Amino acid sequence: MADRPVTILPKSAVLAGLFAVWDDLGALLDGLPDTQWQAVSPLPGWDVQALVSHMIGTESFLSGIPAPEPDCDVKTLEHVRNDIGAMNECWVRHLGGERGADVLARFREITDSRRKALAGMSDEAWNAVTPTPAGMDSYGRFMRIRVFDCWMHEQDIRAALQRPSSDAELDGPAAQLSLDEIAGTMGFVVGKRAKAPDGSRVLFELTGPLARSIRVSVDGRARVVDDFGPQEPTATIRLDGLQFTRLAGGRPMCPSRARDVELGGDREVAQRIVDHLNFVI
């Protein structure tokens, strides 16, 4: 861990975002007709019910509840690409035959249990290093990744139901924490995936309710920085903040928001970065 400092995050802020997105999901799904639970999502092979089943499965895993036995070899399914995907699919298939209202009840039950466990967690346990989807890091970082995952799936469900988030709905702690998580990966995206040359200074200008600037400097290695000092960016990428999260998650853009991506400076490098934005496994 010497070259990878542990990410220390405030427990209260991360949990506020996590609990908020669980509340938002509950409100979005409450009273949903059975037919809409089968609405096709942007993720291959998954409908709305599958997305909620996946979130139930992850929170169950974190509660020490083993995945149910699947009815087939889930690793042979086309959209299953790794062991995490296989575990997800066990829950998706297990809950696939239940009524949507019953799946929502299970979602509320497991997230209520997780709220109690997380609220009672000591700061020592919160900051302890543990395996996460992003490698070894703090449990707090893992929970910010949970915010990101649940918030992204809320947007997937909204896309399936054709009920996109309004500007006001995007102005919340879960969206900001999700963007924090995505922003932290941009050094990897710019340096490793897009292979921006040494000396590059890349500026992401995000617009809309998720407006912010993300700067990546490549000096031996690519890393996110607060500013470029007196120097100007060598490449700029300007787009709506929600659309940025969709591209970073390997999803199609939201049709209800502007889909323009404006490139400046070294357009070849900027385009290469856009083409390699998806960092989700």
UniProtKB/TrEMBL annotation:
Top-level taxonomic group: Bacteria
Pfam entry (one): MDMPI_N
Gene Ontology terms, MF aspect: isomerase activity; metal ion binding
Residues annotated as domain MDMPI C-terminal: 177-272
Sorted UniProt keywords: Isomerase, Pyruvate
Gene3D superfamilies registered for this protein in UniProt: dinb family like domain
Domain Mycothiol-dependent maleylpyruvate isomerase metal-binding: 20-158
NCBIfam families xref list: maleylpyruvate isomerase family mycothiol-dependent enzyme
Protein name: Maleylpyruvate isomerase family mycothiol-dependent enzyme
Species assigned in the record: Mycobacterium helveticum
Lineage of the organism: Bacteria, Bacillati, Actinomycetota, Actinomycetes, Mycobacteriales
